[in-house]
Amino acid sequence: MNPEFILGLVLLLGGTIAAAFPVPKTYLNRLINLEISAWGLLLLMLSYNEALALLTFGGVSALSVYIFVRVIQKKEAPA
Amino acid sequence: MWNEYSIGLAAAFACALIGFLALVWERDDLHKLLLIDLVETASLAVIALIGTDLSEALILPGLVVGIAELLALSQIYLTKEGYQHHPVTRLNIEVMMRSPAPVIISAILVVYGIILSGFTGGGIAGLGIVFLLMSRSFSGDFHALEMASGISWALWVAAFFVFMFAPQWWYMALMGAAIGILLKVIAKMSLVGAMWGEPE
Amino acid sequence: MQEGWIAVNNIALMAFGALAIIGALLTIVERDPFRKLISLGILVGGSVPFIVDRGLLDVAIAVALIAPLSTIFILMVCGRGDQ
Amino acid sequence: MTPQEAALAVCAVIAVYAAIRVALEPDTLRKLPFLNVLSFAVAGSIALLIPHPLSIVAAAAYFVGSTLESNAIASTYAGGLDRRE
After folding, report:
1. Looking at the complex, does the CB of residue D80 fall below 8 Å from at least one CB of chain C?
2. Of A30, A43, B68, D25, which residue is least crowded by CB atoms under 10 Å?
């Protein structure tokens, strides 16, 4: 039980609850709360020294944020 | 009984359960898309808890499938709801448009990605290119990208044949396949980045 | 000297863990998107030293450059301030 | 306690203090200077945490990234570029 493991689990749980039930229920709030659980998973991978998976997850999560932002912008654009 | 693995597994399954519950109660399609990403995070945590090289080997394909699925689902959503041709605003941040900072950061990311090679390097270098294309208003032709895509297919097939017929040169084949997938992912990701200002 | 080094490192890491917890709690509690993003910056600042402490310095460089990029991506959908 | 350890402890204390100040600040724009203080402290402690030449580069990368992030937040909060066009 190293500190990264405990911290990662706490962030994963907190981020999941916050992203599942965001308080003002907007797309933006849910997207930002998803980032918390992503950092929790990152710390969890760090506690097992999975460097390559960690690096790939960082890149892919930033790309998926980009895709979500594009979809949200197109949806909320004035038609 | 309650060692590290069990505690982690219980927490990860609790996360997956919460995600699926929220998915059941959700009505809006875009919210559902966001929740799918949440469920993916929880299930990757279950795999990461194995904690050996096996988990690393299982997480990488999971991430590949996740990003491909997300791209496809977002395109389907946009087409279905008829939002395909809505205009999108560009990035209007002073630091991004008027300074060399984006160029330097994307140069570091691209060089580091090319050193890494494989899907990881492709993702990171592609992210750098997406960021560069987003901060500079870029519009050009993409013949070079199509050619890179074709070259990567050829490299891949050649590496496969080397694996099949001349296994003693496996290292060369491995490097060929890694460079092929690097080119492929970079080409795809920069296409995604250039799609940004496409409609109107 | 080695013992003392490890002890101070542990105290500093506890401080960074507290930083990450503060950042996560603030991010959950806040309602305005800009305040949420600032709190997310605190969370990132608490998490990166853990990667450095493991000795994965190349990963730390990449993650420290990627994390602001996703914040900037989110900022694009954040609206135009208070006008 | 060697000088390096003392510097690390000071950096960590400053980081926690800055985080508490950010948490208690009611005004959004006034949060940003304290976020900058936090990133200075974290960058300093990244450089001091491991005696390795590459850790300086990691600290520089974190510093550049966080400065860019807070600049972007401030610029977007103030309305961005499109107001004068």
Report:
1. yes
2. B68
Q: Give the position of tokens 């998107």.
A: C33
Tokens of B74: 């977002």
Range of the domain at B133: 94-194
Most distant CA atoms of chain A, gap in Å: 53
Would the CB atoms of C8 and D42 count as touching at under 8 Å?
Answer: no
Residue D82 lies in a domain: no
D-chain residues within 8 Å CB-CB of C11? 9, 12
Interface contact flag, B94 D75, Cβ < 8 Å: yes
- Please tell me the total count of domains within chain D: 1
Q: Total domain count for chain B?
A: 2
My answer on whether B69 and B159 are in the same domain is no
Q: Which residues of B33-58 are buried (b: 16+ CB within 10 A; e: fewer)?
A: bbbbbbbbbbbbbbbbbbbeeebbee
- Closest CB from D50, D54, D70 relative to C41: D70
CB contact under 8 A, B63 and A57: yes
Classify residue D83: in a domain, yes or no. no
Interchain touch D–A (≥3 Cβ pairs closer than 8 Å)? no
Interval B154-194: pLDDT, tens: 988 899 888 888 888 888 888 888 888 888 888 887 777 77
Query: Where in the sequence is the domain holding D65, given as residue range(s)?
Result: 3-77
The ipTM assigned to this model is 0.87
